[in-house]
């Protein structure tokens, strides 16, 4: 459907009054885009350039994507936190005592706790948390997609803060044992890392699944598959952002022949500061998510 500018104004009144039923409700936000559906008098005719003239449906779909973009962007920092599972958490574990009884636990294997946490928490969420939340909120699913994502973002921030506290305790052990200038593990058990891995798993249960539901339900009907796939891009971008932050921190903290936060011998470094940096970034990301989530107006998901 192509309209003149006056027709677009009339369309908004008709939709808001209930006289006109449309597949995508007319949205008053980003109204400057509505001009893309205006036919100039010099362009009147049967043939129009699709790159200069859009239908009302195309414009409303673009508005939906623009509203979803800030929510999508907050997922990048979340997966930056998750990327620590396979990077700095393992580096931290290599500086801890991995002897548990008669077994030696490779630091990288602790990342399996993330998967175990997900497997355990999914049924707990469905059988216990959702019924309780349903009674409290009156919502069929207990939490909305945005609420679920927000809980996951908050838990992931707590996870990396716990990692920072563990590192502070490890550095204290290194100093008390006189191992600061020796590249050897401290006597502190590697099992102290278990809470941070488990919390990351809890965060993924809430955020990852909530994100998948959000992008499927809130995206335009004709773009559901594309938006669901686009949501997965945050996983790779989170890993890239983690690598960029690590590279930037290493560069800035090693200038002037300084040891830096993350030297080869972690007993001489300050890995805890790196974790606090990630925790601070995640906290700001959580606050940004809360702001945009409050501004976001959900559309009614159609059932196919």
UniProtKB/TrEMBL annotation:
Concerning Gene3D superfamilies, the annotation shows:
MFS general substrate transporter like domains
Cite the SUPFAM superfamilies for this sequence. MFS general substrate transporter (SSF103473)
Source domain of life is Eukaryota
Gene Ontology terms, cellular component aspect? membrane
Q: Which residues cross the membrane?
A: 69-90, 110-128, 149-166, 197-216, 228-254, 274-293
Going by the UniProt record, its keywords in alphabetical order are: Membrane, Signal, Transmembrane, Transmembrane helix
The way it spans or sits in the membrane comes to: Multi-pass membrane protein
Chief location? membrane
Cite a single Pfam family from the UniProt record. PTR2
Signal sequence bounds:
1-17
Q: Which GO terms describe its molecular function?
A: transmembrane transporter activity
User: Where does the UniProt annotation locate this protein?
Assistant: Membrane
Family named by the database record: Belongs to the major facilitator superfamily. Proton-dependent oligopeptide transporter (POT/PTR) (TC 2.A.17) family.
- The molecule here is called Peptide transporter PTR2
Q: Which lineage is the organism of this entry classified under, starting from the top rank?
A: Eukaryota, Viridiplantae, Streptophyta, Embryophyta, Tracheophyta
């Amino acid at each position: 459907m192509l309209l003149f500018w006056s027709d677009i104004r009339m369309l908004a009144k008709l939709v808001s009054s209930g006289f006109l039923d449309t597949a995508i409700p007319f949205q008053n936000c980003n109204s400057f885009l509505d001009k893309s559906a205006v036919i100039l008098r010099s362009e009147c005719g049967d043939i129009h350039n699709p790159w200069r003239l859009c239908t009302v449906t195309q414009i409303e779909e673009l508005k939906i994507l623009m509203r979803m973009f800030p929510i999508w962007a907050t997922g990048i920092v979340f997966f930056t936190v998750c990327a620590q599972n396979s990077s700095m958490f393992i580096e931290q574990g290599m500086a801890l005592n991995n002897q548990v009884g008669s077994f030696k636990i490779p630091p990288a294997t602790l990342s399996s706790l993330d998967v175990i946490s997900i497997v355990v928490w999914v049924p707990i969420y469905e059988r216990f948390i959702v019924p309780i939340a349903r009674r409290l909120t009156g919502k069929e699913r207990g939490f909305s997609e945005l609420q679920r994502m927000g809980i996951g973002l908050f838990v992931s921030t707590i996870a990396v803060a716990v990692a920072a506290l563990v590192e502070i305790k490890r550095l204290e052990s290194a100093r008390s044992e006189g191992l600061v200038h020796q590249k050897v593990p401290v006597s502190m058990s590697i099992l102290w890392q278990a809470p941070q891995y488990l919390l990351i798993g809890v965060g993924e249960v809430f955020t990852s699944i909530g994100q998948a539901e959000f992008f499927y339900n809130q995206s335009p009907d004709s773009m559901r598959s594309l938006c669901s796939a686009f949501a997965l891009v945050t996983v790779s971008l989170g890993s890239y952002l983690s690598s960029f932050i690590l590279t930037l921190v290493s560069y800035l903290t090693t200038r002037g022949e300084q040891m830096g936060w993350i030297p080869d011998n972690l007993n001489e470094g300050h890995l805890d500061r790196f974790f606090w940096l990630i925790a601070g970034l995640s906290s700001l990301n959580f606050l940004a998510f809360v702001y945009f989530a409050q501004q976001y107006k959900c559309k009614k998901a159609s059932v196919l």
